[in-house]
């Protein structure tokens, strides 16, 4: 049987994400976010996206600021030390330009685990007794979006049931995360789609399995034979990945463990300058529009990327000043 060629370009990968798609990402807060693909989605003027994320980060803030997102379901968004909260999302919600559905961090993880297992929901006790379960804060319900017309939106935000097996008390049932496209940012992917993540892989396996279509954007594409030599180090099987893209520095300004550090100066600058829509538009004009990934890297400059580059023995940069 002839092997499928899964390799595509960054622009072709972005074209697979259609207007109105439900979208999710790899990584955690400011690590291993597929920013090169996010910037390309903004260039292609994608609209009406529905983001489902275990937690948000710079990828969320850029897409929201650019007007690409209608609905966001998650628990938190921000830039850690470099911007404690999502200023763009906060502004859009304040202006009633998008819907935010709040779940706890654990509930979002359970939602993806349920989808990865092919289950319609998960049972958990996270967030019990909090206002996350207050019907007044079912924002999709209040917007009339839980009528069953959208197969990606559950007909209720949660349900409750008593433990029927061991008498362990009440549990909340949370809906599985229904995702059209998952985009992963990883260190290595094989020619056939096998993913190897160095360092923490967070909920990447569940995100990949939850999606109808999974795209892996990697620092490098390597021979499958190389990955099979130590197959226990691989993270996601080839048959779970539909397309692959080779794109060095694809996670910048977020970090790629073992390859390059988080660009804290970039994120801090973004956070400070994009608290208004005018500020975001100016930042996007400088860094996104009129660029492709190569010219974006050229604008960053060799000196900056060299400073961020990780020492291969230590897995972090020895040139970045810390603790300031």
Structural class: alpha/beta
Q: For the terminal residues, how far apart are their CA atoms?
A: 57 Å
- Spell out the CATH superfamily of the largest domain: Glutaconate Coenzyme A-transferase
Outline type: globular
Description:
The chain is an alpha/beta fold and 324 residues long. It has 2 domains: 10-246, Glutaconate Coenzyme A-transferase; 264-308, no CATH class. 29% of the residues lie in helices and 19% in strands. It has helices spanning 10-15, 35-43, 58-65, 87-94, 105-116, 139-142, 204-210, 224-228, 264-273, 277-287, 293-300, 302-308; strands at 22-25, 49-52, 69-74, 99-102, 121-124, 159-162, 170-175, 179-190, 195-196, 211-222, 243-246. Strands 1, 2, 3, 4, 8, 9, 10 and 11 form an 8-stranded mixed beta sheet that branches. It has a 3-stranded antiparallel beta sheet with strand order 5-7-6. β6 (159-162) and β7 (170-175) form a beta hairpin. α2 (35-43) packs parallel to α3.
């Amino acid at each position: 049987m002839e092997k499928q060629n899964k390799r595509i370009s960054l622009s072709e990968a972005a074209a697979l994400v259609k207007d109105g798609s439900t979208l999710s990402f790899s990584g955690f807060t400011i690590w291993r976010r597929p920013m090169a693909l996010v910037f390309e989605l903004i260039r292609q003027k994608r609209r009406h996206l529905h983001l489902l994320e275990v937690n948000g980060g710079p990828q969320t803030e850029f897409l929201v600021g650019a007007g690409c997102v209608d609905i966001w379901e998650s628990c938190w968004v921000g830039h850690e030390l470099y911007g404690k909260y999502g200023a763009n999302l906060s502004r859009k919600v304040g202006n009633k330009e998008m819907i935010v559905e709040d779940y706890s961090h654990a509930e979002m993880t359970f939602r993806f685990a349920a989808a990865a297992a092919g289950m319609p929901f998960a049972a958990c006790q996270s967030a019990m007794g909090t206002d996350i379960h207050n019907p007044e804060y079912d924002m999709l319900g209040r917007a009339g979006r839980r009528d069953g017309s959208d197969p990606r939106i559950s007909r209720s935000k949660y349900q409750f049931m008593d433990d029927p097996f061991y008498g362990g008390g009440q549990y909340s049932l949370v809906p599985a995360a229904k995702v059209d496209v998952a985009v992963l940012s990883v260190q290595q992917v094989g020619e056939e789609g096998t993913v190897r993540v160095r360092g923490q892989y967070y909920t990447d396996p569940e995100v990949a399995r939850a999606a109808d279509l999974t795209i892996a954007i990697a620092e490098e594409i390597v021979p499958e034979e190389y990955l099979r030599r130590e197959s226990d180090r691989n993270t996601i099987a080839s048959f779970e990945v539909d397309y692959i893209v080779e794109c060095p520095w694809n996670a910048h300004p977020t970090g790629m463990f073992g390859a390059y550090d988080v660009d804290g100066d970039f994120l801090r600058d973004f956070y400070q300058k994009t608290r208004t829509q005018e500020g975001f538009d100016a930042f996007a004009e400088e860094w996104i529009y009129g660029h492709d990934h190569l010219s974006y890297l050229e604008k960053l400059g060799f000196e900056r990327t060299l400073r961020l580059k990780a020492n291969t023995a230590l897995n972090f940069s020895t040139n970045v000043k810390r603790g300031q």
